[in-house]
Design goal:
Elements lengths: L3 E6 L11 E2 L9 E2 L2 E3 L6 H13 L2 E3 L2 E10 L2 E9 L2 E4 L4 E3 L5 E3 L7 H10 L2 E10 L2 H6 L10 E10 H4 L2
Parallel strand pairs: 1-7
Antiparallel strand pairs: 1-4, 2-3, 5-8, 6-7, 9-10, 11-12
Length: about 170
């Protein structure tokens, strides 16, 4: 079997938590993983990382350095995975949420206010657990000096959501 090249994005927020997504396809369907997927024809590795993060989370990242290379084998697959560390969330948040029937509930206005996202997600069965906002400040720049060019600019807010049905056990 021919190995398939895949990419992943190890994205951290301002509190050093890693971004995870629930896998929608085998292998590992239903498990939590970093955003990522297969390299498409004539696509660079960096383009693939940015595309996969955007498709899976709605976030736009600037791809950083290669973090690790690993392989995954199964009875019917062989993946060669290259995981990158995108060092900055430039902008973007999801503009739609799947409801319990899988229907996509879109935010239709041009300016996406925080309340638009919270309202659409709430109507689709999601509960907001946490939300954090920050500017690129001196503490951030001390940890990541290459971020100095973004000083005093807002960083896309981070929201932690959970399906309401999974809150009740």
């Amino acid at each position: 079997m021919t190995p398939v090249v895949g990419v992943g994005a190890i994205v951290f927020d301002a509190n050093h938590r890693v971004l995870l997504v629930e896998r929608g396809r085998p292998p590992g369907q239903g498990l939590w993983s970093i955003p990522g997927g297969k390299l498409e024809p004539r696509e660079t590795l960096a383009q693939a990382v940015a595309r996969e993060v955007r498709e899976e989370t709605g976030l736009i990242v600037e791809v950083g350095t290669l973090a690790c290379v690993l392989e995954r084998f199964g009875d019917d697959y062989h993946f060669v995975l290259l995981d990158y560390h995108p060092f900055f969330l430039l902008s973007g948040i999801p503009t739609h949420f799947p409801n319990v029937d899988g229907e996509q509930i879109a935010i239709e206005n041009t300016v996406h206010l925080t309340s638009d996202h919270v309202g659409a997600a709430s109507q689709s069965g999601w509960a907001l657990l946490e939300m954090h906002e920050r500017l690129i400040d001196d503490e951030w720049i001390a940890a990541l000096p290459n971020m100095a060019r973004y000083a005093r600019r807002p960083v896309s807010f981070v929201m932690v959501w959970q399906r309401r049905s999974s809150l009740v056990r």
